[in-house]
Amino acid sequence: MKLMWSRLGVRVTRILLSWVGNVLNHPQIDRLSAFAGIGAHASPREVFELLQGYYPPDASFIVLPMDFEYMAAGKPKKSYMDQLDDLKQLKRDPHIGPRIYPFVAVDPRRPDLLQLVRHLVESEHFSRIKIYPALGFFPFDTRLDPLWQWAEALQIPIMTHCSRGGAYFRGPLSTFPWPKEAGPKPKPGTPNAKWTDLLSDPSGFKYVFQKYPNLKVCFAHMGGTEECRKWLSEPWPKHLGQTNWLSIILELMKAFPQVYTDISYSAYDAQIHPLIDVLVRDELIGRRILFGSDFYMVQQNMTERAFSIQIKSLLSNEAFHRISEINTKQFLCREKPSRNDPFYTLHS
User: Fold this and answer.
1) What CATH number should be reported for the domain whose range is 67-347?
2) Could you tell me the pTM of the whole model?
């Protein structure tokens, strides 16, 4: 496993995957080889230069770091603070800085969290906040209250990971704090990969919105490809709206004018393209859907350019412009919705 995360290990892995892909003539293995190849790049600068090659020269990008230091999976090869230093250097670069919007990854277990976030936002021009609850916390963790209060007051947007799977907390369930708001604690022996999904469940934000109703939050991935497929294929009894992540996100978007979602990664699946098209055309929901790809994770399924072209071919020019520019600028800005916003018109 340590070999896999070294630069040499990544290159060896890519060579092996490429060889197996050629022997078996399997496109998925070729894509995994390309995915591993991106990980072999030495610095965030090299990864960014690769990414920008897929888009027009005037495109801008949201950059989402990750804080892996509290997920009980061992010490990361590169610390989170070193990762932030790399992003600071990119943001200060006169050519790259104006084109990137770095977020701050937050974890309630990190000491002096609010001070760190305020420094990065106020002094280093970081844009907003990113959370990944599956790494070991609930969004309604009371240790986050000072941060949510500050973010609501200044209208600092928050991006939350919201799909099943991905990275997750590796520590024991037996010692994990389980608040009553989370419902019944999973049974002993439940795999971490399964019970940590409960941490990312968007319904957990209902408790956050009870305290901070004007918090601006984007639920990434539309709840995930799996949840979107279930939303399409299953009948809609009352319980679906309580358990299906896409249903929960849509209900939150209808209840709060500052709740967004994005199509990153999930939209690689052509099965949910009609759903995306319908939601983007919705007068209320469509104004708060964002374009995103989840580079370079999406490389496991298709190239970055193929992903963006696929979405652009699905939508009208006006609709694509809305989700890729207008809605995104609206999400990033630090203002509350105008009373002329369709949300208020449709709720009056």
Assistant:
1) 3.20.20.140
2) 0.87
